[in-house]
Specification:
The complex is a heterodimer of chains A (111) and B (112). Chain A is an all-beta fold. Chain A has no helices and 11 strands. In chain A, 0% of the residues lie in helices and 55% in strands. Chain B is an all-beta fold and 112 residues long. Helix content of chain B is 0%, strand content 51%. In chain B, the strands form 2 sheets. In chain B, strands 2, 4, 5, 6, 9, 10 and 11 form a 7-stranded mixed β-sheet that branches. A 4-stranded antiparallel β-sheet of chain B has the order 1-3-8-7, with no helix packed on it. In chain B, a hairpin with a 7-residue loop joins strand 9 and strand 10. The chains are: A mainly beta (111), B mainly beta (112).
């Protein structure tokens, strides 16, 4: 079993839809949770960073962490074709520790 | 701010050869981590450098080695290349004690 599980998709939605992306994990020691966006043949771009449980909002993006269920989510409101990319969840135990990534979910937003 | 820069962008090598990849961290960052990303997979941690020392290492063989220079830039060396080493190699920079890691655009290595 992988430490971090993520549905690879692809997830295809119409422009303007609300997108929900999720990851589950098995290591209860994880405390730092991140979401990265990766366009084809590019490096990952940090979107959201959350420490421990709770919600964090930044523009159209909301990150949620439920440590009791070992489940994290990223919501994208009013999705745009430019949001089409692979979304990677990542997490770590300590603040300087290695990041453990999910496999990534490929999102396609069509006009 | 130039962000994290990696060179070269693409590289083709033959099995058995050796390769060196380079990374300059984001301005103000002192910690460099290297990741390998196979096609369709998430990045896998190789190792991390801080104060010119390897601080953490992932599950990669000794063929993978690295170095950090006094200006915080870093190199990743891979010896005796295998076909399975073909991947996107990513460098991430951060501040020691901080959590937010910023990635470069990667070096795509193809081993033939």
């Amino acid at each position: 079993q992988k430490e971090v599980e993520q549905d690879p998709g692809p997830l295809s939605v119409p422009e303007g839809a609300i997108v929900s992306l999720n990851c589950t994990y098995s290591n209860s020691a994880f405390q730092y949770f991140m979401w990265y966006r990766q366009y084809s043949r590019k490096g990952p771009e940090l979107l959201m960073y959350t420490y421990s449980s709770g919600n964090k909002e930044d523009g159209r993006f909301t990150a949620q962490v439920d440590k009791s269920s070992k489940y994290i989510s990223l919501f994208i409101r009013d999705s745009q074709p430019s949001d089409s990319a692979t979304y990677l969840c990542a997490m770590s135990v300590g603040n300087t520790d290695k990041l453990i990534f999910g496999t990534g979910t490929r999102l396609q937003v069509f006009p | 701010d130039a962000g994290v820069t990696q060179s070269p962008t693409h590289l083709i090598k033959t099995r058995g050869q050796q390769v060196t990849l380079r990374c300059s961290p984001k301005s103000g960052h002192d910690t460099v981590s290297w990741y390998q990303q196979a096609l369709g997979q998430g990045p896998q941690f190789i190792f991390q450098y801080y104060e010119e020392e390897e601080r953490q290492r992932g599950n990669f063989p000794d063929r993978f080695s690295g170095h950090q220079f006094p200006n915080y830039s870093s190199e990743l060396n891979v010896n005796a290349l295998l076909l399975g080493d073909s991947a996107l190699y990513l460098c991430a920079s951060s501040s020691w004690g901080g959590t937010e890691a910023f990635f470069g655009q990667g070096t795509r290595l193809t081993v033939v």
